[in-house]
Amino acid sequence: MYFDQGASNIVAKNNLVYRVSQAGLFVNLAERFDGETPQNNLVTNNIFAYSRRWVLQRGGENQSTFTFTHNIVLYDKGPIQAFPGKWSCFGDCPRRFLMDYNLYWHAKGDKPEFITTDPDRHQAEHYDLGGWKKLGEDVHSIVADPQFVAPHPPQDDFTLKPGSPAKDIGFVPFNPKEAGCTHPLMRPPPLPPAFPRQVPDPNDF
What we know:
- The strands form five sheets. Strands 3-6-9-11-14 form a five-stranded parallel sheet, with no helix packed on it. The chain has a four-stranded parallel sheet with strand order 2-5-8-10.
- The radius of gyration is 18 Å and the shape is globular.
- The chain starts with a strand and ends in a 45-residue tail after the last strand.
- It has helices at residues 93-96, 129-134, and strands at 2-3, 11-13, 16-18, 23-27, 41-44, 47-49, 54-58, 66-69, 72-75, 97-100, 103-106, 114-117, 124-127, 142-143, 148-150, 157-160.
- The mean pLDDT is 91.
- By secondary structure, the chain is mainly β.
């Protein structure tokens, strides 16, 4: 999901974002790069799985860039947050970006790590979840296996098993197969591909 420069007041809900080559979510600058203009984007009740590079990327230091809540984050490569990246807080992290009620799980069992950066982006402060919570971020979030049915190719089944701890963050299951165009009259006519198709190897992600 890519919110380009100036994108504000967007609600992104009930999306499955998996095996993308870059960030699962990138929120670029606000309309005015003054550090004060709020964007007020809400990202809630989504599944982010196996982003190849990192999960979250922030392009500006504006207030209220995004609220990231009730999401499931499953990853096995790279960090949760992009670095170098815009994660300066100026002592007011939740006013810049608010993360809470999320579930984090590293497929290899590594503990999640979070960062803040200085304004010139050359250095980062690293936090475990406990230290991150002291900054006011992810206060009610948990680290737990979400227990997907079969989150690997060829099944790619991100249905939650009964008893999944995702219920503890208020996650509401949704059916990803309901995404996209549903009216048959709106479907475009079949056309040959403009370029030769190449099927990627899922193991590359």
